[in-house]
């Protein structure tokens, strides 16, 4: 019988982890790769019967690749601590594993903001894969490389993306530093063109091309903060270019 391993990267996820673990209890094993949490994240995972790995965070790819070494299932599902796998998606996952039509599958992630799911602010991300045919690359926005074809499952993941306005903005700022540092290493330079055009295009793409306007005020807010995140990235790149942080 085909076995499934679930890998969950964590850092101070105590308020949310229990529900995430409960939603994937159908898996044959759950591996929590923890980045030295200072709350009781590890205790919650251990009480649930998870295999817990503790590792100092350096980047997202290395964390997940490290956890992959300990997975024993033929298939691996990657889930974050603030995500939930509903029953309908569980059935799709199990059916996909048995069919073996593809080496991996994308799951749909509608954003959750202002107490509602924004179905016009959603992402399709590869999360279900055959263990021996995958690896992660990249430091900030890690990319799951899969040897073989990729399918797509229909039922959405419940992803409680942002816990509030300040959490949303601080998350964008945190990512912006990572992204700016990576751009600097690649020899990229920020210009006033980047500061003016890139944020505008991100807003236009999010709000108009992806029809974020259909999500009402939450859609407008998300598009605006996404544009701010791009602006912040290039401002920080300029600071790094000048030796300021």
Task: Write up what this structure looks like.
This protein is of the alpha/beta class and 245 residues long. It has helices at residues 14-23, 41-47, 60-68, 87-99, 165-185, 192-209, 216-241; strands spanning 4-10, 29-34, 51-54, 75-78, 83-84, 104-113, 116-130, 134-137, 143-146, 150-156, 158-159. The strands form 3 sheets. A 7-stranded mixed sheet has the order 3-2-1-4-7-6-10, with helices on both faces. Helix 1 runs parallel beside helix 2 (41-47), helix 5 runs parallel beside helix 7 (216-241) and helix 6 runs antiparallel to helix 7. The radius of gyration is 19 Å and the shape is globular. The termini are far apart.
Please give the count of helices. Answer: 7
Number of strands: 11
Mean pLDDT: 92
Kindly name the structural category: alpha/beta
Query: What would CATH call the homologous superfamily of the largest domain?
Result: Spore Coat Polysaccharide Biosynthesis Protein SpsA, Chain A
Poorly predicted regions are none
Strand proportion, as a percent range, falls in: 25-35%
What is the alpha-carbon Rg in Å?
Answer: 19 Å
Please give the CATH architecture of the largest domain: Alpha-Beta Complex
CA distance, first residue to last residue: 53 Å
CATH class of the largest domain: Alpha Beta
Gross morphology: globular
> What letter string, H or E per element, gives the SSE order?
EHEHEHEEHEEEEEEHHH
Helices, strands, pairings?
Blueprint: E1 4-10, H1 14-23, E2 29-34, H2 41-47, E3 51-54, H3 60-68, E4 75-78, E5 83-84, H4 87-99, E6 104-113, E7 116-130, E8 134-137, E9 143-146, E10 150-156, E11 158-159, H5 165-185, H6 192-209, H7 216-241
Parallel strand pairs: 1-2, 1-4, 2-3, 6-10
Antiparallel strand pairs: 4-7, 5-11, 6-7, 8-9
Helix pairs in contact: 1-2, 5-7, 6-7
